[in-house]
Design a protein that fits this description.
39% of the residues lie in helices and 14% in strands. By secondary structure, it is of the alpha/beta class. The strands form two sheets. An eight-stranded parallel β-barrel has the order 1-2-3-6-7-8-9-10, surrounded by six helices. Strands 4-5 form a two-stranded antiparallel sheet. It binds ribulose-5-phosphate (5RP).
Length: 293
């Protein structure tokens, strides 16, 4: 039986302090459930509303690409500097220690290799397995204008439905076919379709012209992929421009893990994303950290 001796008669109800009812800080996410918002808060830092996602899921269609030959050696040292890891379940279970508490964004589509038509994907991870892995979100490729456009969109809507049952957000990754024009018009179309059909946030590429119209017309947060490897200063400029034009973060792979100094580079990217650091100052930081390493 509980010990009643310590029960006190005086109580403080703070009658003059109304209970706070806070709006959720993330664009377009206010009406989501608690679990969904909590997972998004593990991805997007509540202090800045932004995220540095480290993407190393490329092996799901490319195999051991440059920089990802040994994820235990090359990528795990970067994890402490990322807000979120984007990866496959195979790598999660074989390489990532469960003591690592970073938010996991699970690659949940697949089924093709770079030797075939990439848009011919399906959902490749069961929702129950995503729950077992305690993921913060699931990622699915959407090929607007691609050969299997409809199939990839339906993959996304199915994942949104499954995730909604359990409070797990879906990241729609807009994938651009080799022959397609990467411009703001295309990305406005692709991101908006993903958001309209339920994606909780959308990954896209940065474009030099009118990128702010892409972020403005997408009702949920946008993160940018890094794309092919650029010189470090150029990659930092791209991240800076995207953030200043409304992106809520980066989901960057090759421009970090193929850098000459990946641990320094991810810290420079963080400075741009979370501290609004200019690309020039972030590049100085990169060089200083690289010299010290
Ligand atoms: C693969 C992906 C990658 O995660 C994405 O392309 C990010 O990596 P990078 O910055 O190297 O482009 O979605 O399909």
């Amino acid at each position: 039986m509980a010990d009643l001796d310590a029960v006190q008669d005086t109580k403080e109800y703070y009658l003059d302090i109304p209970q706070k009812s806070e709006a959720f800080y993330l664009k377009g996410s206010n009406a989501l459930g608690w679990g969904m918002q909590n997972r998004l808060a593990r991805i997007f830092n509540p202090e800045t509303g932004r995220t540095v996602m480290l993407a190393f899921d490329h092996g799901y269609f490319q195999g051991a690409t440059t920089g990802l030959e040994r994820i235990d050696v090359n990528i795990m040292p970067l994890a402490p500097f990322a807000d979120t890891l984007m990866l496959t379940r195979g790598i999660l279970r074989s390489v990532v220690p469960p003591s690592m508490t970073k938010a996991i964004v699970m690659r949940a589509s697949g089924g093709t290799s770079m030797l075939k038509e990439l848009s011919n994907e399906e959902i490749a991870v069961d929702i129950e397995d995503s729950i077992r892995m305690n993921v913060a979100a699931m990622a699915v490729q959407v090929f607007i204008g691609g050969e299997y456009e409809k199939q990839s969109i339906i993959n996304m809507t199915k994942l949104v439905d499954q995730g909604t049952r359990y409070g797990i957000p879906t990241l729609a990754v807009t994938a651009v076919g080799k022959d397609m024009v990467r411009d703001a018009r295309y990305f406005r179309l692709a991101t908006r379709i993903c958001a309209e059909l339920g994606a909780h946030y959308v990954k896209t590429y940065y474009v030099e012209k009118d990128f702010e119209t892409v972020t403005a017309s997408c009702p949920v947060p946008i993160v940018i992929a890094g794309g092919k490897k650029l010189p470090e200063l150029d990659a930092l400029k791209m991240a800076y421009n995207a953030i200043q034009q409304g992106a809520a973060g980066v989901d960057m792979g090759r421009n970090i893990f193929q850098s000459e100094a990946p641990v320094s580079m991810i810290q420079a990217v963080r400075a741009v994303v979370h501290q609004n650091e200019t690309p020039e100052k972030a590049y100085e930081l990169y060089k200083t950290l690289k010299a010290e390493a």
